[in-house]
Amino acid sequence: MTTHREPLSSVLETIGETPLVRVHDSPDSVPVYAKLESFNPGASIKDRIGRYMLERMLERGDVDPGGTIIEPTAGNTGIGIAVAAGRLDLEAVFVVPERFSLEKQQLMRALGAEVINTPTEEGMGYAIDRAHELADELDNAAVPQQFSNPLNAEAHYETTGPEVHEALDGEVGAVVAGCGTGGTLMGMGEYLREQHPDTHIAAVEPAGSAYREFLGEDPEHGEYKTEGIGTHDIETNVLFDPELVDEIYSIPDEETHAEMQRLAAEEGHLVASSSAANALAAKRVAEGIRDGEIDAPYDSVVTVFADSSERYLSKGVYGDFEEWEG
């Protein structure tokens, strides 16, 4: 749990060591715990990779102090990178598809970054290509590219995974996390599998996403309102290793929306849609362990609550489902 008892010199020192809290809508015999990542200074789990990737890139000489970081992002990664860039003498430019949260884009600009919007219909693939084009036009510029950079998963291998393992005294039965880039689950999963080879690893996506294609299935593609996880083109998700994953849970938007509201009203968690999807999938895994349908080394499940619902209030997350704008 976050316990900063001495003065710190930078917000970078407050990243990580987030609380691990029981999610009470889970079996008593197989509790679900969530890492509350909104406790990070940029209020999301992406602060972890923002700091980690930029520090490693500076160490390797991928970019020098005074240079520019250009990243295609739906928002939270941009905020995390912007928090770190400003402390590490780097400029930040973000390429963001138009449909994503205006709150996130405003925060990126507030942190001193430049935001360039791309057409929603062109998808994240176009934003990735545009980021590389911009980097090629500048001297001393680099694209961290969270979708393909191994440092993304490495950040969670070095921080999130060990924090969970320590908090539960090593007794982690399963880890469940939504996959956008896949970095969170891959890093945590690899670390926890090294601690116990039978740890159950489950991925989460919105219904309509294409992650199940990694398992050789042919899921029905469709639009979804859940932000931050899912994919329409698995070729962009090169970090995802299906060999590490035991199951992929596809959660319909309607269920995710209801769970967002339940988590707030019943448990005091002001979390966004990816967190709600994680909670639902984690509960299913916990029930599977309880009922003997899933083999796990311990009777516990860990997931992540990646960010706060405050970042999505303009999209009507707490109104009727029909009013929720994805």
Describe what you observe in this structure:
This protein is of the alpha/beta class and 326 residues long. 35% of the residues lie in helices and 15% in strands. It has nine helices and ten strands. The chain has helices at residues 46-60, 76-87, 102-110, 123-136, 150-158, 160-167, 183-195, 253-267, 273-290, and strands spanning 20-23, 32-36, 68-72, 91-97, 114-118, 141-142, 174-178, 200-206, 247-251, 301-305. The protein has a six-stranded mixed sheet with strand order 1-2-10-7-8-9, with helices on both faces. Strands 5-4-3-6 form a four-stranded parallel sheet, with helices on both faces. β4 (91-97), α3 and β5 form a beta-alpha-beta unit. α1 crosses α5 (150-158), α5 (150-158) crosses α7 and α6 (160-167) crosses α7 (183-195). The longest helix has 18 residues, at 273-290. The model has no long low-confidence stretch (mean pLDDT 95).
Structural class: alpha/beta
Please work out how many helical segments DSSP would assign: 9
List how many beta strands DSSP finds: 10
Strand content of the residues, in percent? Answer: 15-25%
Q: What is the general shape?
A: globular
* Radius of gyration from CA coordinates: 19 Å
- Write the H/E string, N to C: EEHEHEHEHEHHEHEEHHE
First-residue to last-residue Cα separation: 32 Å
Helix content: 25-40%
Roughly what is the average pLDDT, rounded to an integer? 95
Largest sheet: 6 strands, mixed
Note poorly predicted spans.
none
Enumerate the strands of the largest sheet in spatial order, edge to edge or round the barrel: 1-2-10-7-8-9
